[in-house]
Amino acid sequence: MAAITSPVPAEPAPAKPGRPRDTTADDRILRAVVDELSDHGVAGFRINNVAARAKVAKRTLYSRWTERDELILAGLNTLALDLVPPRTGSLVGDLNALYDDIADALDSPRWLIAARCSFELPDYPELYALFQRDCIDKPLAVVEDVLRDARSRGELRPGIDCSVAAETFTGSIAGFSSHIARLRGVSAYGVREHFLDMFLQGLHDDAGK
Predict the structure, then answer these.
(1) Contacts of 133 by beta carbon, 8 Å cutoff, 6+ apart
(2) What is the enclosing helix (H) or strand (E) of 187?
(3) Which of 23, 66, 69, 164 lies 20 to 30 Å (CA to CA) from residue 175?
């Protein structure tokens, strides 16, 4: 009879060389990018300063974002309006919800950083194109989706251009939230009911109210 032998325990896998990846580094880096943009804008943005602010080595930055513009865009994306269609089932409900989401975001001091950078970005065409795609076009697309849903429900009067209406809606809230508006005593919160009433009257199909 063959002898019964105990299985040989497997040897543990060798440890991978190097230190484990710092899972908090990304957040620290992005906060440092925003702080750097706040202090120096796009023109004065320096990779060395970001590394020092985030307390990471430059190679840590480049392992995540290989170019300066990628790093700037990543920081700006943290300031962008993160809108989702409310899907309340009515144009009135959707626009009321979107108005509050946009006004709250634009009331944040962080948005002033994005606004400042937006004046510089046209000097950097490739970066500006990406900024427009991620920080302007995406939020506008959400508003357009809400308006198209309203059209499919028969709530919009004929001839409404959803793109123009979305630009008007978001641009007006931004205007009411600007520094100049505040100096004049105007705020997005103060004009909310009057603006929404006027805007909805312009959009509504009388038969579909």
Answers:
(1) none
(2) none
(3) 69
Give the pLDDT mean for 139-157: 96
41: left (phi over 0), alpha (psi -120 to 50) or beta: left
The mean of the pLDDT values for the chain is 88
Three-state DSSP at 107 gives coil
- H or E element at residue 133: none
Length of the chain: 209
Average pLDDT over residues 83-89: 95
Q: Is the pLDDT of residue 17 over 80?
A: no
pLDDT digits (tens, 9 = 90+) for 33-48: 999 999 999 999 999 9
Q: Distance between CA 185 and CA 182 in Å, rounded?
A: 5
**Spatial distance between the Cα atoms of 166 and 69, rounded to a whole number of angstroms:** 28
User: Residue 26, class by beta-carbon neighbours within 10 Å (0-12 exposed, 13-18 middle, 19+ buried)?
Assistant: middle
Q: Centre a 10 Å sphere on the Cβ of residue 200 and count the other Cβ atoms it contains.
A: 16
Kindly report the pTM of this predicted structure. Answer: 0.78
Phi, psi of 84 (to 5 degrees): -130, 145
Contact 146, 95 (CB under 8 A): yes
Amino acid 57 reads: A
